[in-house]
Amino acid sequence: MARSTTSLRLDDDLRDRLALAAQTDGTSLTALVERFIKEGLDMASHPGVIFKSGPSGRRAALAGGPDIWEIASALRHTTGPTGARVATLASEFGIHERQVSIALDYAAAHWDEVEGRMSSNDRALDDAQRAAAARERLMA
Questions:
Q1: Model's pTM, two decimal places?
Q2: Strand partners of residue 67
Q3: How confident is residue 15, by pLDDT bands cut at 50, 70 and 90?
Q4: How far apart are CA 118 and CA 54, in angstroms?
Q5: CA angle, 110 as apex, 109 and 114 as ends, to 5°?
Q6: Alpha helix locations (H) across the chain?
Q7: What is each CA distance from 60 to 52, 79, 90, 130, in whole angstroms?
Q8: Measured between alpha carbons, how far is 58 from 64 in angstroms, rounded to an integer?
Q9: Backbone angles phi, psi at 60, to 5 degrees
Q10: Across residues 26-44, what is the average pLDDT?
């Protein structure tokens, strides 16, 4: 990815808060500012999408709802016309159909990111199933 230098003038208090947040996150000030700008632009382009941290890192999610990758993953297991699939997902997650559409729009625009999350989850599930089967064999 090409990089260029951009100079910004920040209020001293804001710069101090950013520096503290970067230190707390164990990242550089530049990396934190880039993340905030990217996430802010993504949230502006996809109202209703937020970003949250967790054990697997930061990820896109619906405000007050599931992670985007979870909805995209569940979509793989639905069939039928588009409207029926959206209704099924909305019911399954207990959210409004519009939220499903927001999630799917975000997933379409950020497919590599969402697909990476789904693949990581699929691998973790496979690993857990293998470990459970091995435990069962030991107990037999």
A1: 0.84
A2: 61
A3: very high
A4: 15
A5: 135
A6: 12-25, 29-45, 68-75, 82-93, 97-109, 111-139
A7: 7, 25, 17, 29
A8: 16
A9: -75, 140
A10: 94
